[in-house]
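User: My instructor asked us to take a sequence, write out its structure as tokens, and then describe one feature of it. I'm not sure where to start. Here is the sequence I was given:
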Amino acid sequence: MSASLRLGQRYAPALTGTFAVAALFLVWQAAVHWHWLAEGFVPSLQDIWRAVVHLVHTGELQSNLAATLISSAWGLAAGLLIGVPVGLLMATVPGFERIVAPVVRCTYALPKTTLIPLLVLWFGVGGATNVIVIAVTAALPLIVYSLRGAREVPRVLLWSARSLGTSRAGLLWRVVLPAALPQILTGTRVSLGFTLLVAISCEMIVSNQGIGKLIGQYGDQGSYDYLFAALFATTLVAYGLDTLLNASTRALLRWHETAQRHG
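Assistant: Let's start with the prediction itself. The structure tokens for your sequence are:
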């Protein structure tokens, strides 16, 4: 295979994505220019860009975006600390799944924002309520993916470890967790998208800071250029985080496969 062909295959997805975004922007601008959509509700890209510049200049975008990312990070971290152990224990401890699975299934189907009124009564308006809702949202996919990953561990590995006298805790830490790592990382990526979505939803309802609060504020004011500016900035940051996590996952899995071969 020639070097140019390999280079083309390597960058083809990025180029395709770039062309798709450019086409979307062209259609957007054409729709505004020729009034295909309701006038006043869809601002031009120039107006959105001016709004972004103004929000950055005043610091309003950075401060609210930071608040959203901080609450999302705390919620995702709590979800990892809860979801991964619960999923692994469901797969390895007899009887534990029968106790926990009904709760997980019921909570999975529940819209998480419905917890907000109750949590506001308990913890008040602000960060704690948001983090708890985000943590519950993040934990559920991690439970499912950790359970799936633990169940896919080859039985021969478990039998070999037990025959060498490995304790239950050692089996979980040294065998099950490393073997389930690919599924856990996939669950983390799924949870990341959910955490940002729920964080913004919570901020629109009960928070006095964050991107969700900013979107709700400008929507109520009818300042749609600023609303879309906040949306575009959030989308760009979310895409960057997902890309970073995806690259980190690939690097970690390459290391994981190498360690498995030489371990």
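For the description part of your assignment, you could build on this observation: The mean pLDDT is 83. Try explaining in your own words what that tells you about the chain.
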